[in-house]
């Protein structure tokens, strides 16, 4: 899978600068807002999470048309905006479970063989193997140094690469051991319990890691423009960037809890101010 990301990186560095710079800056700013002000925007985040949950459910079922998908997604937006705490709780727990499941299963498969080792072990892949997600898509026409990839071409490259990564992850999950599913279920239960017992803290943590991830994505886009090979750098210094990400999550959570006091505390302070004015 890492080989596919490196190959995508080599192409992304040739994207039209307008695809990487302005959108990258916008993504970073959006990530900063979610990272530090997620609790204040919890209704908006709840709406987005609701739309994502409903859309994911529909796409997983896979028997609905585009109109039905859009309709149910908008219903998810509405539901998430109304019940933002419950929606964000479900969203955070589900994402945590999926991440753990994908990470553990991918790690298990990586111990057995890498993509390159698998490719070298085969002489001629069958059509079924080509569609299984084990072979990442290549675009030889864009591999020349002087090529500039347009918006439409960049979207197509990104779409096909994302499809491969999703197929590869699903394939790893299907062939993973019980440990992957057990880990995911344990994390899902723990996250669900935390969301029910400490909803405010859980929402702050969810917004913090989501904002941090979006910031990372925006920075990667900008580094693609600089041709700094960010994916390779992250892979080489994985522990360092993991520590940075964890520190960002902790800092963002603390800032949100401090700058966005609970409704009960705010109401109490307002009542105290009114009593003081009367005196």
Which secondary structure elements does this structure contain, and how are they paired or packed?
Elements: H1 2-12, H2 17-37, H3 42-61, H4 66-82, H5 84-112, H6 115-120, H7 127-131, H8 151-174, H9 178-197, H10 199-226, H11 230-236, H12 238-259, H13 263-278
Helix pairs in contact: 1-8, 2-10, 3-4, 3-5, 4-5, 5-8, 5-9, 5-10, 9-10, 10-12
3D structure, described in words:
The chain starts with a helix and ends with a helix. The chain contains 13 helices and no strands. It has one domain (2-274). It is globular and about 55 Å long. 81% of the residues lie in helices and 0% in strands.
Question: Which short descriptors sum up this protein?
Answer:
279 residues, mainly alpha
Radius of gyration: 22 Å
Shape: globular
Q: Whole-number average pLDDT?
A: 80
- Tally of discrete structural domains: 1
Low-confidence sequence ranges? 113-119
The main β sheet shows up as:
none
Helix content: over 70%
Helix/strand/pairing category: mainly alpha
Please give a quick description of this structure.
The protein has 279 residues and is mostly helical. 81% of the residues lie in helices and 0% in strands.
């Amino acid at each position: 899978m890492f080989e596919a990301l490196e190959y995508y990186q080599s192409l992304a560095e040739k994207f039209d600068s307008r695809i990487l710079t302005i959108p990258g800056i916008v993504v970073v700013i959006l990530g900063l807002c979610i990272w530090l002000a997620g609790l204040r925007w919890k209704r908006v985040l709840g709406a987005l999470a609701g739309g994502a949950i409903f859309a994911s459910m529909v796409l997983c079922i896979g028997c609905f048309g585009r109109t039905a998908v859009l309709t149910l997604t908008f219903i998810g937006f509405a539901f998430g905006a109304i019940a933002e705490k419950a929606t964000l709780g479900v969203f955070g727990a589900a994402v945590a479970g999926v991440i753990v499941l994908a990470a553990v299963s991918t790690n298990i498969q990586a111990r057995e063989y890498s993509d390159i080792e698998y490719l070298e072990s085969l002489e001629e892949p069958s059509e079924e193997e080509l569609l299984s997600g084990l072979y990442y898509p290549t675009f030889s026409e864009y591999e020349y140094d002087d090529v500039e990839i347009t918006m439409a071409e960049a979207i197509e490259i990104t779409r096909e690469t994302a499809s491969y990564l999703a197929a590869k992850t699903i394939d790893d999950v299907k062939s993973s051991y019980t440990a992957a599913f057990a880990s995911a279920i344990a994390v899902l239960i723990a996250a669900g319990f935390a969301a029910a017992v400490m909803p405010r803290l859980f929402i702050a943590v969810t917004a913090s890691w989501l904002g941090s991830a979006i910031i990372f994505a925006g920075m990667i886009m900008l580094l693609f423009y600089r041709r700094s090979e960010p994916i390779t750098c992250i892979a080489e210094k994985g522990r360092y960037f993991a520590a940075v990400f964890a520190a960002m999550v902790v800092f963002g959570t603390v800032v949100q809890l401090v700058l966005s006091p609970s409704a009960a505390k705010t109401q109490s302070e307002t009542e105290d101010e009114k009593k003081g004015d009367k005196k």
